[in-house]
Every structure is written in structure tokens, then in C-alpha cells.
Amino acid sequence: MTLIEKLEKGERLSLEDGLALYDLDFFTLGKFANAKRTVLHGRKAFFNVNRHINPTNICKDVCKFCAFSANRKNPNPYMLSHEEILITLENSCKNGITEAHIVSAHNPEMGLEWYVELFTKIKKQFPSLHVKALTAAEIHFLSQLHNLTWDEVIEKMMASGVDSMPGGGAEIFDEDVRAFICKGKVSSDGWLDIHRKWHQRGKQSNATMLFGHIEKREHRIDHMLRLRALQDETGGFNAFIPLVYQRDNNYLHVENFLSSIEVLKTMAISRLVLDNIPHLKAYWATSTINLALVALEFGADDLDGTIEKESIQSAAGAKSGKGMELKTILDLIRNSGFTPVERDSLYNEINVYM
Ligand code: SF4
Ligand 1 centroid to 329 CA: how many Å? Predict the structure, then answer.
């Protein structure tokens, strides 16, 4: 069967197929990805009204691609207090946020109890706020810090009110690339196993992929296939989020920057290869909002959200530091020919803006 026949019949795609998709005519690839997104979501473009909180940038790890952690290129260490975070959330709740997205560096001075207390306080003060917190990389770090198992950390997260897990820390699963760009972080199998354990408790999460650095196309497809296999097993992933590598202020020294065509091809291929993950997010904080809007025609159906404030990608050069106004995101989606749909963190529809 040819690749086109496989696409027409909706057959499951292999590593070789995924690679061959990069050589397909750009618009033919986009047409198939868009057909798949249309079957799943019509012309809806999802977003949520959320607030990103990054409690500290002091990190014991030294990922080469990272511009967020405090180091000699970014000599600006900080640690937020519970009170500061609660005040921030109080203001954000007045703006209508439904989600607090809490992701942090690996700071040995902010242990599991610090997070457990924070989540408990957030849930007490804002009971209806969805708490999306602690990546698999952070869970692994906290388990090592306290000599606990992943299960024990997960149990404490759940008991303190964490509703879902973000998809960060996946980077690229290929072990050689991973060893070069983020040696010391949770292993690929570990990342997958932590999400497996989370899903087995009936909880949901997302999955990211950092691309556009030293990885090759086959590493991206391999990454997708490992996620697809876990999703077959658990069904717990809501969204796949390809993150475009940002090149400022880090130690990776990547000379070649990805073309927009390569980014869009990768989005489209994700939509086709990941046939069992319902949503594909074009995270505008890393792709730019304009490219994210074009990605809606190449398989993506979600733009993340208003964010309000973002520290991780903007430290590396992304123009996302101040987030985006609700009206702006609505206008941009409408003007691109899609229907804006505000969603909650688990993709339940809150408001369809006709
Ligand atoms: S990516 Fe995360 S774990 Fe790695 S150095 Fe940066 S903050 Fe630390």
C-alpha cells in the first residue's frame, strides 16, 4: 500500500511512514492533517484562560537548552513564596482564569512539602480552580530529593489537590540526544512510566516534545511513537504539544533555526501519526502566534491559552512574557476562519464564541 493510500484509508503509520511524510508535498501533507483535525474537531479552535506560575528558577540540573534556570547567562535567581503565588492567583481569578499551570525548576530548597502546602492552600482558597502541576521531571526530582518512590510523590500530589499533570520534561526521548541536552533529568522510560502511573489512577495529562535543536526527524517520529504506544495502553493523554526550541541565552549553540515549513510539517505529521491523542496544541508561546494560527490549518486544534505571564520560553527569546488578552485571542481565531472555543483543562467546552 502506498503512503497516500494509507493516509486515505486512515491506516496507522510507522516510523518509515512518518519520515516519508516529511518528503510529501507540503500542501498535500497539510490537506491530510487538516482532514483529520476536521473529523475530530471541525473548525473549532480551543483555548483556555489560564495563568502560568513558575515558583522558582533555581535548579540543580543543567539542561543545555534551558534559558530559564538561574546561571551565569541569567543571573537572576528567585523563589516565590506561597503568599505571593496566592495573591497572583487571586488577581488572575478576577480575570476569569480556570487553570493554574504550575511548573518549576528543580530547587532542593523547595521540597515536596512546600508544594503540598501550596496546592492545599490553593484548593482551599480557590476550590474550583484546576491545578495542573508538577511535570514528570519534577516528580522524579522530588522523589530523589526525599528518597520516595514516584508512586509516593503522586499520592501526595493527588491528596493535596493536583488535578492534572502538565506534559513538560519529555524533551526528546531518544536516549543519545537526551543524554546530550539534558543529562540528569528523568529518563525517557521514567517520564513515560510516571505518566502511566498517573493515568492508571484515572488522571489525565499532556505530552510535549522539544524540537528544532540537535535532534533529527527520526527522533521526532520515534518520540511520537513512544507516546502513541503508551496512549494505546492508558488513554490518559489529552494533548500533544510540540514545543519549538528557543535559541537565546542557553548553552546548546544551535546554528540552524527551524524553518516555519519544518515546524508546520512536524505539526501535521504529529496529527497523523498520533492517531489516538485527541488534541494537538500549537503552543503560541514557542511558535509565535502567527505560526500557531497557520498551524490550525495543519492539524492543530488548540492554542493553549491567555497564559497572563510566562517566564520559561520568554527567557529563551520567545515573545510570550506578557501573555495575551482574551479579546485578542478571540479576534485572532475568528479572523483566521475558526470558531473560538474556551475549554477547561480537560477539554470540556466552557464557551463557544460563535
Ligand atoms: S529545563 Fe528545567 S530541569 Fe532543566 S535546567 Fe531548566 S529548569 Fe532545570
Answer: 29
